[in-house]
Design brief:
This protein has 573 residues and is an alpha+beta fold. The protein is 25% helix and 20% strand. It has 13 helices and 22 strands. It has helices at 15-34, 103-111, 197-204, 208-229, 242-249, 294-302, 339-345, 360-368, 424-430, 458-464, 485-491, 495-516, 529-536; strands at residues 61-62, 66-68, 116-122, 125-130, 141-147, 158-163, 168-174, 189-195, 232-236, 264-266, 275-284, 312-313, 320-322, 358-359, 398-404, 407-408, 413-417, 449-454, 476-483, 520-524, 543-552, 561-563. The strands form six sheets. The protein has a seven-stranded antiparallel beta sheet with strand order 2-7-6-5-8-11-9. Strand 6 (158-163) and strand 7 (168-174) form a beta hairpin.
């Protein structure tokens, strides 16, 4: 079963297709329920970490030509010859004029989205960090560019894999120069995103699929924000199925892998396959809406099987273990950082200090940038129109339940951010009757934030997030609650990973907003699913918690030394 395929462009009355759809949804629900954490037991995973077989975080294509990209200063320089990045908060108002496709602009796109941002070292251990976050810093996400010819890179249109350790492109194939102009606007190109599930399964077992799709969402947001720096917009091409995505990125080289009926351990390198998740079209901001002829595009991609693909994927582990698949936004709190400074200095906090507080207006400002339709437009929150949510092709399906701990001027308690106001009446009906559902004091008129109950939520936030202090020691923490089973039935099982993508995009905004106001954040993948629902009074599967997050003052570990991202050490950590 693959869940990357999009819905058919035509409606079918075939009863067998309807039955297949319901079977897929049943499989999705079975997996989702099977991989929940409970107070009494956790989802299945390794009992310890097999360090000898820790997956290499860097995919390389052996024998593919390596095409180095350019590097950029993190801080804006007064030197007129340097490439300055726009201020972070300015991107939410308007984008700069579009840059042409060049070695410099493509280099900057990857540098500010998926590149290494630093190395860390302590004792005998050294590991890399990236601009895009990842569950457990395991980085299952890979990226590919499908581009027209670029001077000093390739003399014809091409497909290349991005190698973050080298900040280089690995040329995989040359493609017809007519391919992109036949379907997309002038000066457009594609970014493909794939996942290596094994990297997450090595540590997290059967819950890995969830975390990989969180990371896809983080990557989509990271690419969207880096593109915005260059005056480019991004849209998800959601009319392509698994085979088209596989063909476009040249991932058909991987042997088929069948998930076993029971957990097994041994040497089976086919588990290191890359699952093609999605393709994004990157195009100049200001281009009017354009329609993609998916039927003709699919036919053209099928011809990619006849291309001369170069390079074989490196091996990531010696042995493997497999799990069976059963208003106007306020800018007063921003520090004047450029977008690149925020993006490349983003870090995942390992601990929160339990002391740092933020002002109420700062909290509201962060929430306003979490809205899918943007703030100040008068638009009812539903459609995903704001940066970076507009890269997604569906209406918002993910909300946020917030545990407010340390926000000056805002009572401690439980709050709810409604990101699709069509769901508001249903949410009021299915949650606890005693919830207030009142706008808090000073809340902007166009911010659909509601106070549910007052009280100290630190202990319950900690308990729900697998007893982790980080959920209680920040300024606030939250759970991302998706409109779940109705979405699967109305749109199809293919929406299951996409709901996790949406949580990842929202999480990336929270990361960057936190750093923009001078604090930090981190995603929390370990939480007790149904106890979260019990706190809210939710029954059944109409709404499900998919991802948790915390925002606050970080505790810095002085034992760990930071090193520059490039040139890095020779290790593959």
């Amino acid at each position: 079963m693959s869940l990357s395929s999009s819905p058919s462009q035509s409606v079918s009355n075939n009863p067998n297709e309807h039955k297949d759809t319901e079977n897929l949804i049943a499989q999705v629900l079975k997996y989702h329920n099977q991989t929940k954490h409970f107070f009494t037991n956790y989802a299945r995973g390794p009992r310890g970490l097999d360090w000898a077989n820790q997956p290499n975080p860097f995919r390389r294509y052996v024998s593919s030509p390596l095409l180095p990209l350019l590097h950029f200063p993190v801080e804006n320089s007064q030197d007129s010859t340097s490439v300055s990045a726009p201020l972070y908060h300015s991107l939410f108002k308007s984008l700069p004029s579009p840059k042409p496709i060049s070695k410099s602009s493509v280099s900057q796109l990857f540098y500010d989205s998926l590149a290494l941002s630093a190395w860390k070292t302590t004792g005998f251990s050294t590991w890399s960090l990236r601009a895009n976050p990842s569950s457990g810093n395991l980085h299952p996400t890979e990226a590919y560019i499908i581009s027209p010819a670029i001077d000093s890179v390739c003399d014809s249109a091409f497909v290349a894999h991005y190698a973050p350790k080298e900040h280089s492109l690995e040329l995989r194939a040359k493609i017809p120069d007519t391919f992109l102009p036949s379907f997309f606007p002038s000066n457009a190109f594609l970014i493909g995103v794939s996942s290596i599930f094994w990297r997450e399964a090595w540590k997290y077992g059967e819950r890995a699929f969830r975390y990989c799709n969180h990371d896809v969402g983080h990557a989509i947001a990271a690419i969207s924000l880096a593109a915005a720096e260059l005056g480019w917009d991004v849209k998800l091409l959601d009319g392509l199925g698994f085979k088209e995505l596989e063909g476009l990125m040249g991932l058909g080289i991987y042997q088929g892998f069948r998930i076993p009926d029971k957990p097994i351990k041994g040497k089976f390198p086919e588990i290191e396959f890359e699952h093609p998740d999605c393709v994004l079209v990157v195009f100049p901001n200001g281009v009017n809406d354009f329609n993609v002829n998916y039927k003709e595009l699919s036919s053209a991609i099928m011809e990619f099987g006849n291309l001369e693909w170069v390079g074989n994927p490196n091996s990531l582990s010696k042995e493997h273990a497999c799990w069976d698949n059963s208003g106007v936004c306020s800018e007063g709190s921003y520090k004047g950082f450029s977008a690149r400074e925020i993006i490349r200095k983003r870090r995942s906090a390992a601990h929160m200090d339990g002391v740092t507080k933020i002002e109420r207006d700062t909290f509201y400002q962060i929430m306003l940038h979490c809205l899918p339709s943007g703030c100040g437009s008068g638009e009812k929150q539903k459609r995903q129109l704001a940066l970076p949510f507009r890269a997604l092709s569906w209406d918002a399906e993910v909300h946020a339940v917030l545990f407010v701990h340390r926000v000056v001027g805002l009572s401690k308690g439980l709050y709810f951010l409604v990101r699709n106001e069509d769901h508001l009446d249903e949410l009021k009906k299915v949650t606890r009757a005693e919830f207030k559902w009142e706008k808090p004091e000073g809340c902007p008129a166009d911010l659909p934030l509601y106070e549910l109950a007052r009280g100290d939520c630190q202990q319950i936030a900690k308990q729900l997030s697998c007893h982790q202090d980080i959920a209680s020691d920040g300024c606030f923490s939250l759970g991302m609650v998706a409109h779940f089973e109705p979405t699967l039935h109305s749109k199809g099982a293919w929406m299951y990973p996409r709901l996790f993508w949406e949580t990842g995009v929202l999480g990336q905004v929270l990361y960057l907003e936190a750093h923009a106001v001078g604090i930090s954040a981190t995603g929390i993948g370990c939480f007790f699913d149904d106890p979260v629902h019990e706190i809210l009074g939710l029954r059944g599967s109409n709404f499900q918690s998919l991802y948790h997050f915390t925002v606050g003052g970080p505790v810095l570990d002085k034992r760990i030394m930071s090193l520059p991202a490039y040139p890095g050490p020779s290790t593959d950590a």
